[in-house]
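Final report, closing paragraph on structural work. Over the funding period we assembled a curated collection of sequence-structure pairs, and we close with a single example.
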Amino acid sequence: MKHIFRILAVIFAFALLFAAYGGRVNPTIWTLPSLATLALPVIAIVCLAFLAILLLFRQWQSASVIFAAFLLAWPTLKLIAPVNFGTRSCDDEKQHLKVLTMNVTEFNWMKGTEPSKNLRYILDQNADVVVIQEGLVYFSFEHLKTVAPMLDELYEKYPYRKKHFYDVGIISKYPFTELEDPILQQDSLGYFIKAWDVDVPGGNLRVISMHFSSLRFTENDSKILESMDKPSGRKKRMKSVLDKLDMGFQNHARQAEALRQIIDKTEGDVLVMGDMNDTPGSYAYRTVCGEDMNDAWAKVGKGPSYTFHANHLYVKIDHILYRGDMRPIYCRFDKEGESDHYPMVALFER
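Its predicted structure, as stored:
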């Protein structure tokens, strides 16, 4: 029994480390590491349960292998479930900036005339700068009946707004100018990225809203995975899901590399927010962060997190990343609104 525990400990430890650092491998070269990184939270939970079993049976050597794997994987695990104690206080002599990002799922315009809970949440938060994703592709969300009851409040609170043909937009209390760059004009990569230089307290800040292409994982795909115990068509069903994920990860790699070019061209403070459709530690995430971007959630967030919650998937794919003379005071995700994404809010000191 002791030998079996040791073999299993090595296998579990390898799986944990493979998932934690799979994001260092470009998915255009090899996709399996990206799949493992996507499954990291589940793998970590399984390893934690196995560690408890080892401790229960007093398998100290095997337990030490799993424990060591957790220590080595911690730089990635803390991006998902950071351990930050206490609260940060604000310096009254500094400027403060509250920001919000939300995938608004087109303000649920197909629900008729019922006021949008997503816009209501945004207005109630009273953030200084808000970026949205899935704000409608073909026409302005301001024409929707679901937001009409709140337009006067929106216009009063946020005099500066821009909704693009693409699905990203910005609403701001402060004036901004849109960045013109050839990279942002490309649509062949299938990504939506826009950038603005916003004249916020504490000095100019480049705000980038990102919405990488969806993995297209649908409720039907979830049912496919749930029915994998049925032998009929099992291989075909699995191949359908894997092909979809494979293409999605490769698209994210190209999109992240394009966004990273914008960051590298930027001097001064940068704030990148939005729906990456990929998890912390992934190749896309690591590429965008590079060596200079910080994750607000990892710095001041607390505990496990997930921002996407549809189709039986619970993963953190929305992010607030920053660089420069900015100090996060808090960062949180609120289980509010009616989107399949939870919004993220952060307060910065500058």
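Residues 2-80 form one domain. The chain has a mean pLDDT of 90. We thank the funder for supporting this effort.
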